[in-house]
Design brief:
By secondary structure, the protein is an alpha+beta fold. The protein has one domain: Ribonuclease Z/Hydroxyacylglutathione hydrolase-like (Metallo-beta-lactamase, Chain A), CATH 3.60.15.10. It contains 7 helices and 13 strands. A 6-stranded mixed β-sheet has the order 6-7-8-9-12-13. The chain has a 5-stranded mixed β-sheet with strand order 1-2-3-4-5, covered by helices on one side. Strand 2 and strand 3 form a beta hairpin. The radius of gyration is 16 Å and the shape is globular.
Amino acid sequence: MTQQAAKARAAIIPVTLFQQNCTLLWCETTRRAVVVDPGGDVPAIADAIAKTGVTVEKIWLTHGHIDHVGGAAELSDALKVPIEGPHIADKFLLDRVVESGANFGITGVRNFTPDRWLDEGETVSVGELTFQILHCPGHSPGSVVFFNPDMRFALMGDVLFNGSIGRTDLPGGSHATLLKSITEKILPLGDDVGFICGHGPGSTVGDERRSNPFLNGEA
């Protein structure tokens, strides 16, 4: 583990009926934090922030699906912090947050435009931590992965799961495109890279390369 690896901590707050992994990530040195994918249940997220005593600087979004963005506008207003991400290819989803929420009986959400769209090769930072942006379409056209090479750690969203991959039957989804993203962008990061994904337990790139049926031809 590198010295920087000890400088970051994370708390996962499962939100919405989809039990999406909203992640509160912070830099231990500065106690500056980011909320990743606040899909809803904003009071629970606010409670986690209060309990850790960190100062949230930003909201990061991996993609535009309702269970990842439903609480973003509300939380942004409450904390007075900017929203960064996802890739602009998911604009059509952020333009329809209210409509999408209604399909699942989710109210109190609103459409919004992030303060910054993210693209391949850019970086985002919080405190002393810097993450590279990987544009990984397939689950959605604008899905991004946040990768910190020093910590060997990634925030995966719904691109790759422990034992599975993101669903591709939603508007803009493509199974072939998702597998291409994983093969060309995620697997080359290295087997030692650990990740938090959008649902369920995390994993490592190596474990998924070896045992994920969608990646080893068994699915």
